[in-house]
Structure formats: structure tokens, C-alpha cells
From TrEMBL:
<dbReference type="InterPro" id="IPR011333">
    <property type="entry name" value="SKP1/BTB/POZ_sf"/>
</dbReference>
<dbReference type="Pfam" id="PF07707">
    <property type="entry name" value="BACK"/>
</dbReference>
<dbReference type="InterPro" id="IPR011990">
    <property type="entry name" value="TPR-like_helical_dom_sf"/>
</dbReference>
<dbReference type="InterPro" id="IPR052407">
    <property type="entry name" value="BTB_POZ_domain_cont_9"/>
</dbReference>
<dbReference type="InterPro" id="IPR000210">
    <property type="entry name" value="BTB/POZ_dom"/>
</dbReference>
<feature type="repeat" description="TPR">
    <location>
        <begin position="371"/>
        <end position="404"/>
    </location>
</feature>
<feature type="domain" description="BTB">
    <location>
        <begin position="23"/>
        <end position="94"/>
    </location>
</feature>
<dbReference type="InterPro" id="IPR011705">
    <property type="entry name" value="BACK"/>
</dbReference>
<dbReference type="Pfam" id="PF00651">
    <property type="entry name" value="BTB"/>
</dbReference>
<dbReference type="InterPro" id="IPR019734">
    <property type="entry name" value="TPR_rpt"/>
</dbReference>
<dbReference type="GO" id="GO:0005737">
    <property type="term" value="C:cytoplasm"/>
</dbReference>
<dbReference type="Pfam" id="PF00515">
    <property type="entry name" value="TPR_1"/>
</dbReference>
<feature type="repeat" description="TPR">
    <location>
        <begin position="337"/>
        <end position="370"/>
    </location>
</feature>
<keyword id="KW-0802">TPR repeat</keyword>
<protein>
    <submittedName>
        <fullName>Serine-enriched protein</fullName>
    </submittedName>
</protein>
Length: 434
């Protein structure tokens, strides 16, 4: 039977550290004037600590046959570590939680995995609120080190549930890329994807101070520069979770950084056709696509087609400045019923009903049986309180296309309007008669 007298051994080694008898190592901790010297023994340091073992092998003795090592950590933390190295014991009951975290980082540097695991457990079990309140500081350290593996998933879970702590932090732009990528890869981040996009763009600007803040002023090379900076982040954005408004306001100014097929699929999200999106969330990074406009006189047909497509994409994104492209298209082809109808609908969305009515009337003069155009004109008539004309257009639209949900909804609202109006007048009539 083996009897272990570890407690006495630990006490004797602690005395050796305290007295410094026969020391051959001088450890200077901190910087003057707030530094402190510890006397230690190479045989204990080498056998107990990988960090000191490597250091001692690379240091030459001085004239007194001693070696000197400089350590740049707090004296409080090093005192805990050196006592642990000598005695195998540590008391953390009254240690401030901030010092505990510094101890965790220092223990990892010194290669004291047993202590790393123990301190992580204490932080998680007793100091979860502190971790949440200091999450940004913690992330700066732990996600770049695989040895701190217990605290990583705990913090990742907090980030998932309280993502704004990271993305709204004043120092977000200084976050190292590897940590940013780790965070972007987390599933179910509880934050609007448009905010994530904003944060990524700010992070990119912080690394390209020379770029104009307005991307409208960027050259092709500027887009390439930003794209290169964000090459590892762009594939991790969940584009199809971003709202239509944010796609237009926040993403579309940087469209040239995205793959053409991805941008097309983003557009398709806003087209109510029920078609599936073919593009993966992860896409390859390539050079930006710069639209090339034909210059020759025979390019009118191509120009019209390109402008119509651009205008349609803009409209689906509620980008009402599609009117500009449609007007250019109509300057080339004044009798383009589709362009007239689409511009009329754009005016309707902007509340410019008279201008919209002019375009829709012209479109229907050219092509009388366009169901969507009749629906748009019916909607304008309803807004202008011309109920009979509205009902006539909406009925005809639904005869041509019974699945036209827009016309169905407008007609339903029109009928509801008339019912409320009849109830109002019936009530007033009763009041007058009484």
C-alpha cells in the first residue's frame, strides 16, 4: 500500500520558493518601477512548466551562473502561477473575476493546461454574468486559441443569443478577421442580417481608410480593393435573410462586390413566382461585374432590354428610382407598353397618382388586355374615389388573370370601402329621421 504525503511535499516546496535557497533563476515580472523579482529553481520550472522549459533552454547563464527571465504579466497573476508551479495548489476563492480571466490567459501562455481547464470551469459556473458583460474582451482572446475549448462554446452561445453585444460594440471594427469569421459562421445569430451587413462594411472601411465613404464615387479598383478585404466574410452573409428595404438601401450600393448569379437570385426572392433560389449561401469570389453599355447606333434594342431588366429588378426591390431607367427606355421606344405600365405602377407606389394614370392609360391604349396594368389603374381609381371605374378595371383584370392577387386584394378593399360607406350613410339617415 502506497501512502502519499503530498500536503507536506507541497508545503516544503512552498518554503523553498519563499526562502529562495539555492536559487539559480531570477524572474523579473512587470516593468519598472512596478516590477518584482522572484527567485526560482530551474529544475522545478523545467519539470512543471513547458514555457519555462523552452525559455531556459535558450538563455545563457550570467557571471553568477544564474539565468534571468523577464515576464510581462501582472504581479498578482504571476504570484498565483508560480505558487501553483511549486506546490500544485491554488486558492481562487477571493480572487477578483477580472484577475481570474487574466490568470486563464497567462496559464495558457505558460502551457499549464490543468490550470486552464480549472479556471474556465470557475468562470462558467460562478461568473456567467461577468462573461456576458465582458464578452467583447473575452472574444478577442479565446476564439484564437484552441486550448481554451470549454469557454469557447459557452461564449458562442451568448453571442448567438445576444449578438448585438458584439456587432454594436464601439471597437467592433478592430476585431481580428479570424474571430470575425468564427462569429459569422455561428448559426442562428439573433440580430437583423442587415445590421450584420452594415457592420461588415464598416469593418472593411476601417482597413481601407482611403476609400470614399460614398460607394457611388468608387472606381472599379475601389470595389476590387474592398472585395479583396472582405473576401472571407462575404460568403458568410445570409443574403436571403435580408429585408428588401435593406437590400436596396444597404447592399445594392455594393452590388459590384457580389457574384452576378447571387445578385440575380437575390432579385428573384422579391418576384412572387414561387421559384426556388439556386444559388448557395456560399459563393465564389471573382472580379466585380461592371455593366457595359453598347455605344453603337444599332444597340437600341439591347439598351431597352437592359434598362427594362434593371428597372424590373429595382421595382421588385421597392427601388422607386426605377422611373429614371424607364424614362430613358421610353425615350428610345415611346410606345413600349411594358415600360409605360411599369413606370405608371412606380408613380402609383410613390403616390403620384395623376402621373401614374397618364402612363397606365397610354399603356392600355397600346395593349388593352394587360391584366396587371388594369389592376394598377383600378388601384389608382380606388384611391381617387372613382369606385365605378376602379371596379370595372379590377373585374376586367381578374377576367384576364383570375390569379392576380393584387387585383383581388384591391377589389376586396374596394368592396369593404363601399360597405363601410353604406353603413355610415344608413346610420346618419337614421339619426336624421329620428
Amino acid at each position: 500500500m502506497t501512502i502519499k504525503f503530498y500536503e507536506k511535499l507541497s508545503s516544503n516546496l512552498n518554503d523553498l520558493l519563499t526562502n529562495g535557497n539555492e536559487y539559480n533563476i531570477i524572474i523579473e515580472v512587470g516593468k519598472a518601477p512596478n516590477n518584482q523579482v522572484f527567485k526560482a529553481h530551474s529544475v522545478i520550472l523545467s519539470s512543471r512548466c513547458p514555457y519555462f522549459k523552452d525559455k531556459l533552454n535558450s538563455i545563457i547563464c550570467n557571471n553568477g551562473n544564474r539565468k534571468k527571465i523577464n515576464v510581462d504579466i501582472s504581479i498578482r497573476v504571476f504570484d498565483l502561477i508560480i505558487k501553483y508551479i511549486y506546490t500544485g495548489a491554488i486558492s481562487l476563492g477571493k480572487v477578483n473575476v477580472s484577475v481570474l480571466f487574466d490568470l486563464l490567459i497567462a496559464s495558457n501562455i505558460f502551457g499549464l493546461q490543468e490550470l486552464v481547464d480549472y479556471v474556465q470551469q470557475i468562470l462558467i459556473e460562478n461568473n456567467s454574468l461577468w462573461i456576458k458583460n465582458n464578452l467583447y474582451r473575452i472574444c478577442q482572446t479565446i476564439f484564437s486559441n484552441d486550448n481554451i475549448e470549454t469557454l469557447q462554446p459557452f461564449c458562442a452561445n451568448i453571442i448567438t443569443q445576444h449578438s448585438n453585444i458584439i456587432f454594436d460594440h464601439d471597437e467592433f471594427i478592430s476585431l481580428p478577421e479570424n474571430i470575425l469569421i468564427f462569429i459569422l459562421k455561428l448559426d442562428n445569430l439573433q440580430i437583423d442580417e442587415g445590421i450584420i451587413w452594415d457592420s461588415i462594411i464598416k469593418w472593411g472601411f476601417a482597413r481601407n481608410h482611403f476609400l470614399p465613404l460614398d460607394p457611388k464615387k468608387w472606381s472599379d479598383d475601389d470595389f476590387l480593393t474592398m472585395k479583396s478585404t472582405l473576401k472571407n466574410c462575404l460568403p458568410l452573409i445570409r443574403y436571403f435573410h435580408i429585408s428588401g428595404e435593406d437590400i436596396f438601401e444597404k447592399v445594392s450600393p455594393y452590388q459590384k462586390m457580389l457574384e452576378p448569379n447571387l445578385w440575380i437570385n437575390i432579385m428573384m426572392k422579391f418576384i412572387p413566382s414561387g421559384e426556388s433560389i439556386s444559388s448557395s449561401r456560399i459563393f465564389s469570389i471573382s472580379t466585380p461585374t461592371i455593366p457595359i453599355k453598347p455605344e453603337d447606333n444599332n444597340a437600341n434594342e439591347i439598351d431597352v432590354s437592359m434598362m427594362k431588366k434593371h428597372a424590373k429588378d429595382c421595382l421588385k426591390l421597392k427601388r422607386y428610382d426605377a422611373i429614371k431607367d424607364l424614362t430613358r427606355s421610353l425615350a428610345i421606344d415611346p410606345n413600349n407598353a411594358w415600360a409605360l405600365s411599369t413606370r405608371g405602377e412606380s408613380y402609383r407606389m410613390l403616390g403620384k397618382y395623376n402621373q401614374g394614370l397618364v402612363d397606365l392609360n397610354r399603356a392600355l391604349d397600346i395593349k388593352p388586355n394587360m391584366a396587371s396594368t388594369l389592376g394598377s389603374r383600378g388601384a389608382i381609381y380606388r384611391t381617387m374615389k372613382k369606385d365605378d371605374k376602379a371596379l370595372e378595371d379590377l373585374n376586367k383584370s381578374l377576367q384576364l388573370d383570375p390569379t392576380n392577387e393584387f387585383a383581388l386584394n384591391i377589389r376586396k378593399k374596394l368592396v369593404s370601402d363601399k360597405k363601410r360607406s353604406n353603413l355610415f350613410f344608413n346610420k346618419k339617415s337614421s339619426e336624421i329621421q329620428s
